[in-house]
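Section 3.1: Structural characterization of target chains.
Under the original work plan, the team committed to producing a structural model for every single-chain target entering the pipeline before any wet-lab resources were allocated. The record below documents one such target. The sequence was received from the expression subgroup and is listed exactly as submitted; it comprises 289 residues.
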Amino acid sequence: MRLVSFNTRRGYTAIGVVEGEQVIDLSLADPELPRSLKRFLTAGRESFESAERAADHAPRNMRHKLAGLELRPVIGNAGKYLCVGLNYVDHAAEGGQDRPDYPAFFMRSRTTLVAHNAPIVRPRVSEQLDYEAELAVVIGKRARHVSEQDALDYVAGYSCFNDASIRDYQRRSTQWTIGKNFDATGGFGPMLVTPDELPPGAAGLRIQSRLNGETLQDSNTTEMIFSVSKIIAMLTECCTLEPGDVIAMGTPAGVGFARNPRLWMKPGDVIEVEIEGVGVLCNPVIAES
């Protein structure tokens, strides 16, 4: 199943089931279902079963064209947006880092997120706006002290993420938080793809970024140092993961700061993140007003 969050013409947020180029509005097809994906996931497997039944019987007037919808970030109100740094050997190497024995974890806030087709904002204070194509993992049920063997049972789905970073601010501190938390810099979408549509742990998927149509990153999720199941097991050693929590799994080589000359996103650019089987996340770049 593929699910999107979107703004309706009636002034509220709804969830939709994606079928090809159409979206079935679940707020109409089954008004009893939650209208936010976080609440939808919290309700458990019953939500997915109800959504499947509603989608199967939805008439034409409950269907919208996907291209015409104003999408929301897949999960816009997660309790935690956890990010993994240096999770591809080639990316660690291009930044002058050794292969890590333990992941570099950091967090993002919800104010950093933008949806598919919404603009990423280059801030006033820096021109060093970089792109990072990443696989996003969305947690489906409460998880604490989960084994690596069982970890994938806690995944609700996957999406595309752009962990766009302000590099000079990122390097002003030994911690990366400030460079990763500028407003409207994290693209997230376009949809949530449930695990049954992908290989276990979303392994073996091609991952790319394209800036103005030019491919800059081109790798595969098999190149991740720490797999999805390993990361979930590690995180749940220290904290409880809850439905709707998001994990961004790190980026491969090819980012702008490692190029010669360095390549920064600028107003007027269009950045795309594509993950095989998951979708294409597209964001224009604008200057902060």
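The CA atoms of residues 205 and 252 lie 13 Å apart.
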